[in-house]
Fold this protein.
Amino acid sequence: MTDRYAVVGNPIAHSKSPEIHAAFARQTGHDIDYSRLLAPLDGFHSTIESFRAKGGKGANVTLPFKFEAFELADDVTQRARDAEAANFLGFDHGRVRADNTDGVGLTRDIVHNLGFGIAGKRVLLIGAGGAAQGVLSPLLEYGPSLLTIANRTVEKALRLAETFRHKPVAASSVLCGLPFGELAGHHFDLVINATSASLQGALPPLPADSFAAGALAYDMMYGTTSTPFLAFAAAHGAKTFDGLGMLVEQAAESFLLWRGVRPETAPVIALLRNP
């Protein structure tokens, strides 16, 4: 019998997850059906329960339901606890387990696909919302020398830094929060945009000297054209990449958790880049 999975969100028509998981299934020989589910803004729980009742084995969760996914789970991993949100649900033996694969998706893309080592590097994470919180622990696991969180509302950056500063994962790194106005004169090896500014065609107010020599700039958003952040970074000498690889890598982590095998991601990333 074909095992059923889905991605749940609102909106959801834009999601590439069905194409990604279909490619993983072909590659691994697994018999799955993966669909999009549009949940009403006030109906995430009922959508999940209906999907489970019809035999669904698991779901990925996208905006705006990641916090609700975290809340409804019976069993929650540490990385989901750190993120306080879940993008992965598994349905096993009458229980719901939650995980967050966003951070591992980001770090696998940067380290394994792009060949950029994070250990000992100076990292700037732009934004202090859910996307930033979801990737902090996996970034810290690689042991950057410095991880700075910059945000328009500095109190949020300071609060997020303080939350993670005392976790064991941060033992080898200096973690701090700064307003954008205090970034001048600081140079970073890896700059990650975890804000939604790119969706609005906006540019975070970064100083031009934020990018150290040989820096990598990474926008967690992805699209067919360069974002203002990536264009700005390229103009100031950085190597630039969007979040498509992160999308595929977090999906591969989900596939591994559900199916017990990690698919090869490079051919799927290439397929999405050149459909």
Observations:
- The two ends are 30 Å apart (CA to CA).
